[in-house]
Amino acid sequence: MSPLPFELQLALRYLRPKRTFVSVITLISIVGVMLGVAVLITVISVMTGFDRELRDKILGFNAHLRITNFSRRPIRNYQRLAQMVSSNAHVRAVAPYTMQQVFVQTEPETGDPEAAGQYLRGIDPKREGEVSIVPRSVVQGEFNLRGNRILVGETFAHNLGLRVGDKLVLVSGRDLRDIYNAKKNEKADAVIPDDYEISGIFDVGHYEYNAAFIFCSLATAQELLGMGQGVDGLSVIIDDPNKAELVRKELSRAIGGDVYISTWFDDNSMFLNALAVEKNVMFYILFFIMIVAAFGIMSAQITFVVQKTREIGMLKALGASSRQIMTIFLSQSLMVGVLGVLCGFGLGHLAVAYRNEFLAFMRKTFGYELFPAKLYLFNELPAVIVPHDIALICGASLVICILAGLFPALNAARLRPVVALRHE
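^ that's the sequence the OP posted. Answer follows.
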């Protein structure tokens, strides 16, 4: 005697591979469910990886809070302001900074110089390690900002062919005004910008940051930008980035005055919100793959009920109830769903595990860049598998598969024995 109820025994027997039209449809239905689950797991994991990786890069390169002047003028008494900020229980580190755009020109030994616009960030070398990962992200050279030494991003260095030891000319907005005035007034002395030596090349793992930023010491930036002893703002690190809004309110009440406090989410809200919306939209759009697969299960079950009409009549004549008949066909839908979900679960995890190898293969074989770093900002395709998302995908897919078999099962259960036994 088999320990399984006879409904499940019949469902398993009917699902055994046979060279029939119904078996082919059933196999296609399983493959459809498998592909739907695999695609959903892969896409949602990649979108989640994007979100988490982006947050990590943002929080590694930028502070949790930034304090600046409403008037955009330099903060002169930043030491006293830093002490007030540090007194908050949630604050872990505070560091001054300057950040303005400058004009950059290379000085190659041969050939014509190249030019670009960059963000110049002046930092305190002793404190920067407490508020960002830049000091720990130098991949060539060293973190040395003494004198006129600077750090450049790996992408920027690659684009302009720069190496450690090369020199750059940095021209600030003030220098451009002086050059314009010198040209306008022929008696004025010409302005000659200073040279700056590349002491290191950094890679923070974010394409945009590697391409757009140059670092120098705070004193060098103040001299170049003509800020005296002032700074553009303070970078603040707190114990929990998710408490940034709470800490901002506390600091606003404590500091008051003509200061503006922005959080890391404020500075990147548009991109982060767009990514969250895109993830949800992708989930709903791709879930239609499961609905298509469900129609395959429904068509297979309808055909199967028609083929097994006489057997259904015999079972009812022998005493099988309508509930038991319905259970047989619902069990078939459940088994198809379970097989498809399990195969999709494995295929999805396999695709996530070897995603970057697949991209490298496509790039090497066909020369096609499926994941351009310039567009997506990361050098590799990120992915994070969240158990909650996987449970939602697999559970919802299984429910869809069962519901797809409900209509054919109800029709089978309604058949009367006399009518079913007459069926040819």
